[in-house]
Amino acid sequence: MRKTVHSLVLGSMGLCMAFGMQSQNAQADTTLVSVHGLTLQGGLDIGGSAFFVPNANFGAGSYAPQNNGAYQRHKNPVYGEFYGKPILTGQWALGHGFTVIGKASAIGATTLGNGDAEEVSQTSGTPRSIYLEEANLGVEMPVKLFGNPNKLTILGGRQAFAVDDGFLIGKGTYSAGNRGAWWYAPRFAFSGPGVIKLEGNPVRADVFMLESNSDNDIDKGYDRPKTKFVGFDVSWFVNRPGGHGENTYADRAAFVTLTYFHVREADTSSHYDYSARADREGMNVASLSWGGTLFPIKQLGISKNFTFYGDFVSEQNSHAGNGYKSVDAYGMFLEPGYRFSMLPWQPSLFYRYTRYSGARNPEGSVKRSYDTFFLYDGKRYTYGGYWPGEIVGMYLAPLSNLEVQQIDLTATPPVHLLNPQDSLKLGLHYYDLSLLYATGAGLKPHTGRHISDELDFSAEYTLNATTSAALAGGVAFSGPAGKALARAGVPQDYALPNLGHHAGIIEAYFFKHF
Q1: Which of 140, 224, 463, 499 has its CA 20 to 30 A from that of 155?
Q2: DSSP letter at 195?
Q3: What's the mean pLDDT when you consider all of the chain?
Q4: What's the number of domains the chain is made of?
Q5: Closest CA relative to residue 170, chosen from 14, 295, 30
Q6: Which CATH number do you get for residue 10?
Q7: Other CB atoms closer than 10 Å to residue 282's CB: what's the count?
Q8: Which helix (H) or strand (E) holds 23?
Q9: pTM score, whole prediction
Q10: What is the average pLDDT across 465-491?
């Protein structure tokens, strides 16, 4: 009887690439009502994606659960996703800088075809759903601190909320099971009570009391633990020229952020025993993140072209449950990058080293496997965000007990396909994945650490601020740990298929805001 490692595999949170972030930030910009200071606006986001995953999981394939409890294996899964999000926003200006604000939205989504290509597919059987996304109400008001003007926002209810680039906090609803659209993952909202934002320059801060939207009945047992948490973040930042870094992450030329939160309550059912996803209740989480051009040296061109991003997250809990006595875990990444602005196509190059802690013994008394909590794939220029690849990192590798070395090269050719303002960005993306401890993933001690090498190509097209599309493809080459993970993930009592050295992907997607 084979031991599976699915309890350690966190699964995808969707890529939501550069254009996909618009699905969170796009403003409802069609005015429906405008009278006596009251403005109501409506909008609609739609997105779709299509995938072909040849030799999925190095030939192990993807197993789709059936109603009778059996599995149907797909060696070369083909699937698609589609979602729509109607949005209604409102503003009521009360005078003297006071404004009542609110937002409501819903998401309808479906997954077609074989479902996602995880070894046990989370979205097979053509799931479809319509659920509430955002529903919030609040007030904005001017305040003065230390003689400087600031804006204070108090917002209660269901809302999208992210700290910096979302490495720790950015996604409150997981898209799996009957929710559909697992890869695109258009859902972001946390449930309340809410957030208090102080938006100043050069210092801004948030105080938050939120909870994730979890439902294992809807998500077929694949959801994260329902988590209620309270905390704060405070950022020092430098604005880009004309930017508004106090409320727009992309406008920060440089920043340093301190974040802390405490988990007040979390699901500690046996569903999460010895799992990288549990043991949250009572946990204290702290993060120090930074980014942009932090140390400008004009003589070396660093003031303009060199960037350095990073984050270090510590997770501590002296009263853990689910099989553990305590938690001592960490996650981190370091990412230096350089933009060759003096060259044609202005290529950008960065190297990212990511490490998620793990333990040699996954059932020891101390939980050392890193919990990604509310990881979102990022708002910056990086294709795929923090997900380590389109093939192995998406469908097979855990986001714990993992070491990732990544190299990205992107370039923007001076071509315009449909209008003078559109753009095309080309990218090459290399990922080297290794386990920290093979035994920590439930594998035999003599198994090698190396999971895979992967090379992906991307072409991202932006027609305008509301319309984008992309095409990507890639190939992954298996290491000994990659094959072992694929073998361990085959459902029990099913014959082990012959595994190969390669797996591939071809994917396309689009986004449109009306």
Answers
A1: 224
A2: E
A3: 89
A4: 1
A5: 14
A6: 2.40.160.100
A7: 18
A8: helix 22-25
A9: 0.91
A10: 94
